[in-house]
C-alpha cells in the first residue's frame, strides 16, 4: 500500500492505515520513532523523516502512550495548524509496540541514538535498527545503520532536513507545511535562532524559508498569510508554555526522564529522575499552597519508586531567562548524593546559589538552588546527578 502525500494530514492518515493493514496481515512493518520526551523535535523529526523517505517509507511513531498527548499542548497546537487529526497518530500503546512483528520489521530512530529499553525488550536484535539521525552524544550503537548521522545541532530536524534536501517536494501546499513543521522544531530548539545554533540549523533555516516563500508565491491569487518567523515562533512557544492548568503530577511527568544506576559491585540499583518544568519553584509552591508542592513531589517520587528526585525549572527568555534546581534524597540509601552533587556542580561551574534563604531545604536530604550557569540544561546536569548517585553510595559506605 503506497502512502498518500497530498497533505500532512492525509500522509499521517494514510501511514496509520498502512501500518494497521500490515499488522492485520501479520506482515513486518517499518517504523521511525523519536525519543520518549516526545517533544516537538521528536514529533517533527519522525514525521519529516517518514515523509522524505521513498516508499515503502517508515511510519512515524510517538514514543509515549496516547493519554500523554494531553500533556503536550505544543503538539496539539501543531496538529491544529497543519490539520493533522490526533487520531491518525501512532503511540507506543496504539497499536502496542509488542504487537509489531519482530521478524522482518525495521526501525529508524531519530532524536536519540540508542533504542529505549522498553522497545529494545521487544526488538532485542540491534540489527533491527536500520537508520539513525540524532544530535545527542553518540552512544556507539548500530554502526552499520544507513544513514547513521550523529552530529551536534540545535535541532535534530535540521540534520534531517539537510540530509533529505533533494527529496523535498517541489510543489503543492504540503511543501510550505512540511517546511513550517520542521521550522517549529528548529526555532523551539534554538529559541528562535538565539541559542545552541549550529551551521546545520543555519543551513536548514535558509533552505526551509526559501521553500515557504516558493510555496506562497505558487499559490498565486489566493495569497496565503505572509511568513512571519517571529509570530510563528511565538505561537508555538506560547502553546508549549501553556501549562498553568496542568495539575502538579502532570507538570512533573510532562517532561520527565529517569535512570537506574548500578551503585556497587553487588549490583544494587538506585533510581533517579529529573523533571523539567517551565515555571519557577515559587510559582509551584504558591500554587499548591501549604505543603502541597512538597507533598506532590513526594507522592510522584513514591509512585516512580525513586531514590533521588530532581526538579529543574526554566523561565523567561533572552535576558530574563532563569534556572533553578531542587534535589531530594528520598531514601536512606541515597544519603550522600547531595553532598557529592554539590561538589560536582562546583567543579562543573553550575554556579549554584541558595534558593530563598534555604526555605525548601531539609538538612542534607533536600536542597534547592538558583543556577547561575544558564547554559547547563538537563543534558549537562543529568550526568552529574547520576554520577553523584553512584559516588554518594561509596562515600556513605566509607563513613560507616
Ligand atoms: Mn532533540
TrEMBL record:
Domain DHHA2: 233-389
Keywords, sorted A to Z: Hydrolase, Manganese, Metal-binding
EC number: 3.6.1.11
Claim: Electron transport is one of the keywords in the record: no
MF-aspect GO terms: exopolyphosphatase activity
Entry cofactors: Mn(2+)
First-tier enzyme category under EC: hydrolase
Stated name of the protein: Exopolyphosphatase
Species, as recorded: Discina gigas
Amino acid at each position: 500500500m503506497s502512502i498518500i502525500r497530498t497533505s500532512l494530514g492525509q500522509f499521517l492518515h494514510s501511514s496509520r492505515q498502512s501500518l494497521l493493514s500490515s499488522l492485520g496481515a501479520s506482515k513486518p512493518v517499518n517504523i521511525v520513532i523519536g525519543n520518549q520526551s516526545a517533544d516537538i523535535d521528536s514529533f517533527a523529526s519522525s514525521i519529516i523523516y517518514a515523509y522524505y523517505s521513498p516508499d515503502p517509507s517508515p511510519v512515524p511513531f510517538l514514543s509515549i502512550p496516547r493519554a500523554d498527548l494531553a500533556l503536550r499542548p505544543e503538539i496539539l497546537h501543531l496538529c491544529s495548524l497543519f490539520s493533522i487529526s490526533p487520531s491518525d497518530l501512532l503511540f507506543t500503546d496504539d497499536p502496542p509496540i509488542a504487537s509489531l512483528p519482530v521478524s522482518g520489521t525495521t526501525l529508524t530512530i531519530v532524536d536519540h541514538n540508542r533504542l529505549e529499553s522498553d522497545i529494545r525488550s521487544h526488538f532485542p536484535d540491534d540489527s533491527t535498527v536500520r537508520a539513525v539521525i540524532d544530535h545527542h552524544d553518540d552512544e556507539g550503537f548500530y554502526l552499520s545503520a544507513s544513514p547513521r548521522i550523529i552530529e551536534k545541532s540545535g535541532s535534530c530536524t535540521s540534520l534531517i532536513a539537510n540530509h533529505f534536501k533533494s527529496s523535498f517536494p517541489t510543489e503543492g501546499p504540503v511543501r510550505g507545511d512540511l517546511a513550517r513543521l520542521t521550522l517549529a522544531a528548529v526555532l523551539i530548539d534554538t529559541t528562535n535562532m538565539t541559542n545552541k545554533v549550529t551551521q546545520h540549523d543555519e543551513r536548514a533555516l535558509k533552505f526551509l524559508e526559501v521553500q515557504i516563500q516558493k510555496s506562497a508565491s505558487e499559490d498565486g491569487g489566493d495569497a496565503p498569510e505572509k511568513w512571519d518567523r517571529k509570530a510563528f515562533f511565538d505561537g508555538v512557544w506560547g502553546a508549549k508554555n501553556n501549562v498553568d492548568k496542568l495539575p502538579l503530577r502532570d507538570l512533573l511527568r510532562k517532561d520527565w526522564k529517569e535512570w537506574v544506576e548500578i551503585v556497587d559491585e553487588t549490583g544494587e540499583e538506585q533510581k533517579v529522575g529529573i523533571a523539567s518544568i517551565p515555571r519557577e519553584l515559587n510559582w509551584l509552591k504558591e500554587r499548591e499552597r501549604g505543603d502541597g508542592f512538597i507533598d506532590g513531589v513526594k507522592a510522584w517520587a513514591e509512585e516512580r519508586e525513586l531514590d533521588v528526585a530532581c526538579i529543574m525549572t526554566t523561565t523567561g527568555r533572552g535576558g530574563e531567562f532563569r534556572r533553578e534546581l531542587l534535589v531530594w534524597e528520598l531514601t536512606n540509601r541515597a544519603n550522600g548524593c547531595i553532598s557529592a552533587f554539590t561538589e560536582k556542580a562546583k567543579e562543573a561551574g553550575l554556579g549554584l546559589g541558595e534558593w530563598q534563604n534555604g526555605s525548601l531545604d531539609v538538612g542534607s536530604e533536600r536542597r534547592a538552588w538558583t543556577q547561575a550557569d544558564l547554559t547547563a540544561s538537563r543534558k549537562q546536569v543529568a550526568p552529574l546527578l547520576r554520577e553523584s548517585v553512584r559516588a554518594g553510595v561509596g562515600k556513605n559506605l566509607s563513613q560507616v
